Amino acid sequence: MASKYQQPFAIPEALPELLKGLTREVLRAQAPRMASQGMSQGMGCPGGGPMALMSGPSYGGVGGDAKERRINVHFQVPYMTKWGQTIVVTGTGALLGNMTVSKGVTLKCHHEKDSLVWEALVSLPWQPRYKYKYAIVGEVDGQQVVEAEELLEHTLLLHEGLSHGDVVEVMDCWCDRSYPGSILASSAFTRVVRQRKAARAGGAALQQQPAVGEAVVRFQVMDWMLEDGQVVCVTGSIPQLGMWQQDQMLLLTETDTPCWEGEIRVPFSAFAFTYKYAPGGGSGGGGGSAPAQPGSPLPSPGGSSAPGAGYLAPTSPPPLLQPPRSSGGGPGPGISSIIRNATSTLLEVGEPRRVQVRARRRCGAGTQRGAAAGRDPTPHRPPRPPRRSLPLAGAASMGAPAVVVRHDGFVRRDRLWRGAGLALPVFAARSRQSVGVGEFLDLIPLIDFADTAGMRLLQVLPVNDTCVYGTWWDSYPYSSLSVHALHPQYVALRALVDDLPGAALPADVAADIEAARVKLDGPTVDYEATLAAKLSLARRIFDAVGHKTLDTPAYKAWFEANAGWLVPYAAFCFLRDLFGTAEHWRWGDMATPTPELLARLTSPAREWHGSVAARYWLQYHLHRQLTQVSEHASARRVVLKGDLPIGVDKRSVDTWMEPHLFRLDKSTGSPPDFFDPNGQNWGFPTYNWEAMADEGYAWWKRRLGHLAQYFSAYRIDHVLGFCRIWEIPGDCATGMLGYFRPSIPITRKDLEARGMAGADALARLTEYYSEKVLWDMAARPGSPDWLVEEVATTRRGLLALRQNLLLITDPDDPSRLYPRFGLMGTSSFAQLPDAGWRSALAALHDDYYYKRHDALWRAHALRTLPALMAASDMLICGEDLGFVPACLPPVMQELGLIGLRIQRMPGAPGTEFNNPATYPYLSVASPSCHDVSPLRAWYEEDPERRERFFYTMLGGGGAPPASACPEVARLVVQQHLNCPSVWSILPLQDVFALMPRYCGRPAGEEVINDPTVTKHYWRYRMHVTVEELLADEQLISLLQDLLLLSDRAKLADLPALAAGGASAFGGNMPLATTPCCAWGPASPADASHDGASAMELSYDTLQAPPHGALTAVVLGALALCDSDALSVSAAGPGGAAAPSSVVAWLAALASARHAAAAPRKAAAAPLGAAPRQAWAATAAPLVFEPLAFERLTPPSW
């Protein structure tokens, strides 16, 4: 029903413009009185109320057309820039530069307490919406460069009711990838882990229209953490936000995932106010009340509909909705909608946010495009009287804003998503059907195992073709022959005809496949024999049946989409086999590929075309099988994580086709570090980054786009190489004589300034000096049995001699010098005649390796890494171990890249072990990785180190176990699961260490790689089949317990456990009551509470831990109670019966408790604290072990 105050102020369309303007001025003057008398009831209603006079399009420009309206938009964003940086806003439309940073609006800055606020006032033609974003611009070599951009674009909505000259106050929050939760925007979460969360696009929150004496406040916030059905609300210190009442919060609308928006109208007198966002459970409450729908009209008691006005009074019976009341007794300003009974929502952490419109100086240089603060930017029209001003401080004001936009970034959460995963190279998998090596299809049951246990990720090593030498050297998975082609060893021969309906393998071929499977089913991979057998059998299948695939539509479509890399790959393989080498620079006229050469080599008319077509066909089936694995992983909500090698082999398709992108006379490696004291030389050519940048990083984009077909996450091998690479001259065998690229070299002027002038000084520093080494190295007389040792000794001596220099000369520019790594430890340094020279060289060494390059390397990383990130939406993890430059951690933080933490590889100087409890959120926590020994092997290698680790990291007492028994392994695994890292990834070898039956294999046989060995044979293979793992209920149950207790899995993700199924806790599980080691002597102070004679374990008491984790309560009960009898109760919460499987499980625990002679208790101080430790019974198998109390619940950070 229309308001009774509408008719007296209605203005006929025929009145002159002057009368219209006069009437608006009268209304403005009467606005405070009207508001106090409750006359704003009709405001915001289409076609009614005083707002009808000002919100219609005919009033956009004081009588002009709506398109002529210009709105003053005041952009503000707090950001602490560095000296020399500026912020530019760019957006849609010419006045904002059409999303081109170089044409955008440059902001000016001022300080507000501890913040640096950048702002600009821009006069924009009215249109419904603008897209815009901010960018940080700096100056490099006299040129303006974009150093950082926001993660997402902002959307600015301009209300229909805005008039010419109105002010829109936009208060933004800089949003980039440094926010930890931004990783949830990657495909690993949106399409895999959190695929149940329905995405929304194109939604719209109900718009309020500007009213007299009020400002519209628009809230916008992002949250990637919401589950499907959850919502975001906002509550605050004003009635429109519910006065901090939980049942009167404003329900926001999900417009575009993850954005939530909503609007209210706030009287000027209500500024400033505070508020917080509240994410959580759906908008419906108990008692059968209907959920409030954001953006929909809420009915008032009288039956009329007032869009945007209404909330649920806390005393009203559901589902009655009532409009809010203003201080004058009438209905209050409009609200989008109010959530009722939001008992499952939680307020965000931190101090309340604050809306306060401050005074602005006349923007001067900050006013853009001719818009001056405080005056109408269109002088041909009479100036419009300003809106009622807020009580602002300062000498000048541009008037009160009609709309205040709050782009608040992300909801502030104290806990973010965490998960766990498995790591295993594909070649290391073993199934009942695989032939000699792990195959792509073997990953399917391994994915099922991970999903059943509650793990959400499976990580593999690179899977590209590495067939360079034709020997076991090709077992090295990081030496890619092609960055696109998949390795033939991973094909499942049994599935090579699955794409042909009704086709079957020839009987003789099927028999030979089975014979090869039996023959090659050894403890480790026989690379050469396995690859030869697979290639031979695959060719027989192709000749007999498989060639029919080439005529199928699916194959033809795939070939057309991949011909750009597939044809050069097939031609390269043909020439490699023809010449007997992959060293393409030795191929004569064919060393330089041309389109004509490729066409001739792969022409169907050639007699060898069958071999070329067979390679096409084999790559097609490898693609089909890996795609099948990828789709299965997504269906099971398991992230498939690949690996991106830092380089490609010098003898590769990529260096043959695009040699200008590589420095082929140099090698990639790493300086001396934890892995190898002599440094590493990987043999890959370094990248010509300048040439890659000139092509827009097209090679990287193609490479990562191809990888994204199969993986939703990937690991960047040696991410340090994107800051700087350790470049080694091509004639070096180790990494000792390398230098950084890019880097700032030492020049002759640097030496002369330190007293080292002249040719003699330069020769002494750059040439081999210590001839005494040769004189002392005498040949050993003896029998030929010593020949091998003599050769090895001679080689080591000559290498040491060559490396015994102080400065390395750049092969490309003799004027550029680099200090040899660790030059202070050489005999050449010790024999320098001048102590001043030694001091100066040591200072130059430390400056080169630790100080002078931070700005250079940071700039390089910010050019190269964003190019990789823009090429796909995969989740990115960077392997940042080794000699890490100081600039890398901040760069990874800014870009939202996830690092790697290995407990035995500390990042802080002076420490021996990392403490997982201190890991940052954006990290992967792993007990080991493929480049170090697995947990059991490492634990047994060094008795003294083992003892230090046992006491300092595990809080052990007494003599440490000589081997990593399951109790030790579980404590280590539990530390990593409980840590703050977003991912805890366990190598499968460390998972085997949790169960005694999997620890029979010698620990040294589980090592995958030894980085100190240049040509290491990568041949590890798991000693049980993936089918056996999937059937191991005890191991799965143990992992489920560990994941639930660490909050890395939810009960809802484990349906069998949630339902009390036998696969989780039931079954006949062996009981072990004697641990293999002790954690300190029993303490009288750690005795039981009161020596009670009986204790009841009931299902009802098992609801206390997070997610109903059963083991948490039971371990405390068994450890802290000296009761002589434990009874089992079947009573559940509210008198409901507990599941029979749970009752049976409790009975088994009670029996185990009776079997124990006495509860074992101890006091210990793990990780520097002094908490009590308790012996606990794990679910499967029931083994008593110590668990620190603080480890039972997830840590808070």
Describe this structure in words.
- With 1197 residues, the protein is of the alpha/beta class.
- Strand 6 (129-140) and strand 7 form a beta hairpin.
- The protein starts with 16 loop residues before the first helix and ends in a 9-residue tail after the last strand.
Whole-number mean pLDDT: 78
Identify the overall geometry: globular
List the total number of helices: 28
Enumerate the spans where pLDDT stays under 50 for 5 or more consecutive residues: 1-64, 283-342, 359-397, 769-775, 1061-1139, 1152-1197
Q: How many strand elements?
A: 43
Give me the secondary-structure category. Answer: alpha/beta
Largest sheet: 9 strands, mixed
Distance between the termini: 54 Å
Can you give me a brief rundown of this structure?
The chain has 1197 residues and is α/β, with parallel strands linked by helices. It contains 28 helices and 43 strands. Strands 1, 4, 5, 9, 10, 13, 14, 20 and 21 form a 9-stranded mixed beta sheet that branches. Strands 34-29-24-23-22-37-36-35 form an 8-stranded parallel beta sheet.
Task: Give me the secondary-structure topology.
Elements lengths: L16 H20 L33 E9 L7 E6 L13 E2 L1 E5 L2 E11 L3 E12 L2 E7 L4 E4 L9 E5 L15 H7 L20 E9 L8 E6 L12 E3 L1 E2 L4 E9 L5 E8 L17 E2 L5 E2 L31 E2 L13 E3 L11 E2 L34 E8 L8 E5 L19 H11 L3 E3 L47 H13 L7 H18 L8 H27 L15 H7 L7 H27 L3 E6 L8 H5 L4 E2 L2 E5 L9 E2 L4 E2 L1 H6 L3 H10 L5 E4 L8 E5 L9 E3 L6 H5 L6 H8 L5 H5 L10 H16 L4 E4 L2 E7 L7 H4 L4 H16 L3 H17 L4 E4 L9 H8 L3 E4 L20 E4 L8 H7 L1 H10 L13 H13 L4 E5 H5 L33 H6 L1 H13 L9 H4 L12 E2 L21 E5 L11 H11 L4 E5 L10 H16 L5 E3 L8 E6 L4 E7 L9
Parallel strand pairs: 1-9, 5-20, 9-21, 10-21, 22-23, 22-37, 23-24, 24-29, 29-34, 35-36, 36-37, 38-43, 39-40
Antiparallel strand pairs: 1-5, 2-3, 2-6, 4-5, 6-7, 6-8, 10-14, 11-12, 11-15, 12-18, 13-14, 15-19, 16-17, 25-28, 26-27, 26-30, 30-31, 32-33, 41-42, 42-43
